[in-house]
Design brief:
The protein is built from twelve helices and 17 strands. The protein has 390 residues and is of the alpha/beta class. Bound molecules: iron/sulfur cluster.
């Protein structure tokens, strides 16, 4: 087997969970594959493919303050600042957008500077939230507690802190003591746990208990999910997942199309297929209205939720997506931000971006090739506006 681009890292908890699923259901079962495809390296990652990006934004989105760069911070959006205290994780999800980021940890001094940046005069009017992510920040709970205390002291404009983690499904025994203290209510800063769960099989007894312990501290828990070929790209798997989240009181956020990273072609669906699955999931009455996710693509200019009018046209494997972000505002929030090569500005000053689809193209039909397991109803809803440019 050849060497992975992203080192395989699997916790003992996940290994034991996969062993149990393999023995109970078999190695080819959807239950075992749902975990194995997320964590095991395979030679599929070395197969020739068009996906070549090493990072999810092919753009410089770093910040500086008083001429000095502020590491571990990304500013793309008006209301929310992304802060990355660590880039280490308990386990490596094969398709992760952070796979090719250099490993780093922020010091307490750097976190205090970030808190001051959040509360300075220029940002007080716009910034309302921080997304504390990584890596997995629950590996460094003392740093997260330090950051939250600094935010309370220096940035009263920040009303919500979102703490992103997969530890409840990767190593739930870590959700104790110091970690749980992060989620204790301390008004006026509301702390939420943002997680990623891609298949119902991840919600075993230990993981559910970990999420429950956080909710018992008064924190909200919400999940974003990634649509992955062979893991959850079937309507029955998605219905099961969102039913389970609803039952547990975990709120739904985005259902992400898998990003076009190098080595990940085998895990990606077509974008049309993602939209069709999202439509089947949210417009069918199959799940609670309170469990419906927003289908979104992570592009070089940020997230684009795939509403009507966001998919403009196709040229071979690339799809032009329309956003309502404007270049002017983007530069106002982050003067360092540069327009990536994949992006353009429309006549109203709004950003558009070319996004690499996950589906191969059937040149004769002038349409993307759908997954052979896609059923007839899903074929019938494929987007009529997508055409190969002549
Ligand atoms: S835990 Fe999160 S940051 Fe770490 S590899 Fe998985 S998705 Fe990426």
């Amino acid at each position: 087997m050849s060497k992975p681009l992203f080192r395989e890292l699997i916790t003992p908890f996940l290994r034991s969970r996969m062993d149990t699923l393999r023995l109970r259901h078999g190695a080819a079962s959807p239950e075992y594959q749902a975990l194995s495809r997320q964590y095991h390296y395979t030679d599929d990652e070395q197969a020739p493919a068009v996906e070549a990006n090493l990072r999810h934004y092919e753009a410089d989105i770093g910040l500086s303050i008083d001429g000095e760069s502020l590491p571990g911070v990304e500013r793309l959006y008006r209301r929310t600042l992304v802060i990355e205290p660590t880039l280490a994780c308990a386990a490596h999800c094969r398709y992760c957008i952070r796979a090719n980021y250099p490993r780093s940890n922020l010091t307490e001094d750097q976190l205090t500077r970030i808190a001051k940046y959040c509360g300075n005069e220029a940002n007080r009017g716009d910034l309302r939230e921080i997304l504390v992510t990584g890596g997995d920040v629950l590996l460094v709970p003392d740093r997260v507690n330090h950051l939250l205390n600094a935010i309370r002291e220096h940035a009263p404009n920040i009303r919500t802190a979102r703490i992103a983690t997969r530890i409840p499904v990767q190593d739930p025994r870590r959700i104790t003591g110091d970690v749980l203290r992060i989620f204790e209510a301390k008004s006026p800063l509301r702390v939420e746990l943002a997680t990623q769960i891609n298949h119902r099989v991840e919600l075993c007894t230990e993981s559910v208990a970990a999420y429950q312990a956080v909710m018992d501290r008064g924190a909200r828990v919400y999940a974003q999910n990634v649509l992955l070929r062979g893991v959850n790209d079937r309507i029955d798997a998605l219905v099961d997942l969102y039913d389970a989240l609803r039952e547990l009181g975990i709120e739904s956020h985005y259902l992400f199309h898998c990003v076009p990273l190098r080595g990940m072609a085998h895990l990606r669906t077509g974008l049309e297929e993602a939209v069709a699955l999202g439509r089947a999931l949210t417009c069918s009455g199959g799940i609670s209205g309170r469990a419906k996710p927003m289908v979104a693509a992570m592009t070089d200019i940020g997230k684009i939720v795939l509403y009507d009018g966001t998919i403009l046209r196709r040229e071979a494997r690339h799809i032009l997506l329309q956003s309502d972000y404007t270049l002017e505002e983007r530069r106002r929030w982050n003067p360092n931000w540069r327009l990536p090569e994949s992006a353009e500005v429309d006549s109203a000053g709004r950003l558009r971006v070319w996004y690499l689809d996950g589906a191969e193209l059937d040149v004769e039909r002038e349409a993307p090739i759908l997954n052979p397991t896609v059923d007839a109803s899903r074929r019938a809803v494929s987007l009529p506006i997508l055409r190969v440019a002549s």
